[in-house]
Amino acid sequence: MSAPLDAVMAVMEAAFDPCHGEAWTRAQLADALTLRSTWLHLAGPDGAVPGAGDPVSGFALTRAVLDEEELLLLAVHPAMRGRGIGRALLDRFVAAARARGATRLFLEMREGNPAQALYRRAGFVEIGRRRDYYRHGRDGPVDAITFALSC
Fold first, then answer.
1. Helix or strand holding residue 98 (H, E)
2. Is the pLDDT of residue 3 over 70?
3. Is the pTM for the entire model greater than 0.90?
4. Does residue 20 surpass a pLDDT of 80?
């Protein structure tokens, strides 16, 4: 498990601005991956699943509960953005969740996150907000937006 964990942590550390406190620690990630209902999707430079020894350019971490699945994290290395990797990961998440029987998908993100456009294009709609959820940002407290997609 060390090699994928190392690759995911490298992408996460590069992709998430530390001022927002969104990145997970290595221990949090390792613990999540021990759960049967948690899946990790990796993407190489072309958005496809990387082969053994290939570089990891992005990842998605998801968790299922009954017939719902949540996108916990999605990140693409900043040097690899704009190549469709995020969309490939999102499409893989949706397809895999549907194949597992999910009827509704969720995600939550910080207001102002540019990934919001990606999620909206994929059909996710805003269903709620957590006011001032992100309190450690340089711009003061920021809302978390909850999105959903019916399968």
1. helix 85-99
2. no
3. yes
4. no
Q: What is the pLDDT of residues 103-146, one digit of tens each?
A: 999 999 999 899 999 999 999 999 999 998 877 666 678 899 99
> Which residues make Cβ contacts (< 8 Å) with residue 131, sequence separation at least 6?
141, 143
- The CATH number assigned to the domain holding 123 equals 3.40.630.30
Helix (H, G, I), strand (E, B) or coil at 73: strand
Give the total number of structural domains in the chain.
1
> Is residue 8 exposed (0-12), middle (13-18) or buried (19+ Cβ within 10 Å)?
buried
As a whole number of angstroms, the distance between CA 36 and CA 49 comes to 21
- Domain housing 73: 2-150
Amino acid at 2: S
